[in-house]
Write a structure and sequence with these properties.
This is Large ribosomal subunit protein bL36. The longest helix is centred in the first third of the chain and has 4 residues. The protein has one domain. It has a 4-stranded mixed sheet with strand order 1-4-3-2, with no helix packed on it. The protein is built from 1 helix and 4 strands. With 40 residues, the chain is mainly beta. Strand 2 and strand 3 form a beta hairpin.
Protein backbone atom coordinates (compact mmCIF):
# COMPACT_ATOMS: atom_id res chain seq x y z
CA UNK A 1 0.00 0.00 0.00
CA UNK A 2 1.28 3.44 -0.94
CA UNK A 3 0.86 6.58 1.15
CA UNK A 4 0.13 9.55 -1.08
CA UNK A 5 -0.79 13.19 -0.78
CA UNK A 6 -3.44 13.02 -3.48
CA UNK A 7 -5.60 10.07 -4.48
CA UNK A 8 -7.18 11.77 -7.49
CA UNK A 9 -5.25 9.82 -10.12
CA UNK A 10 -5.92 6.51 -8.36
CA UNK A 11 -9.65 7.00 -7.86
CA UNK A 12 -10.14 7.46 -11.60
CA UNK A 13 -8.78 3.99 -12.42
CA UNK A 14 -11.31 1.30 -13.29
CA UNK A 15 -12.44 -0.71 -10.29
CA UNK A 16 -11.31 1.84 -7.70
CA UNK A 17 -13.29 2.33 -4.50
CA UNK A 18 -12.89 5.12 -1.97
CA UNK A 19 -13.25 4.03 1.66
CA UNK A 20 -13.02 6.10 4.85
CA UNK A 21 -11.72 4.26 7.90
CA UNK A 22 -10.73 5.81 11.21
CA UNK A 23 -10.54 9.28 9.65
CA UNK A 24 -8.24 8.17 6.85
CA UNK A 25 -9.09 7.95 3.18
CA UNK A 26 -8.18 4.76 1.33
CA UNK A 27 -8.42 3.74 -2.30
CA UNK A 28 -8.93 0.02 -2.82
CA UNK A 29 -8.92 -1.66 -6.19
CA UNK A 30 -9.88 -5.31 -6.53
CA UNK A 31 -9.16 -5.36 -10.25
CA UNK A 32 -5.59 -4.11 -9.76
CA UNK A 33 -4.50 -4.63 -6.12
CA UNK A 34 -1.24 -2.75 -6.71
CA UNK A 35 -3.27 0.46 -6.79
CA UNK A 36 -4.06 0.39 -3.05
CA UNK A 37 -3.25 3.67 -1.33
CA UNK A 38 -3.87 5.75 1.76
CA UNK A 39 -3.99 9.52 1.91
CA UNK A 40 -2.00 11.56 4.42
Amino acid sequence: MKVRNSLRSLKNKPGAQIVRRHGRVYVLNREDPRQKARQG
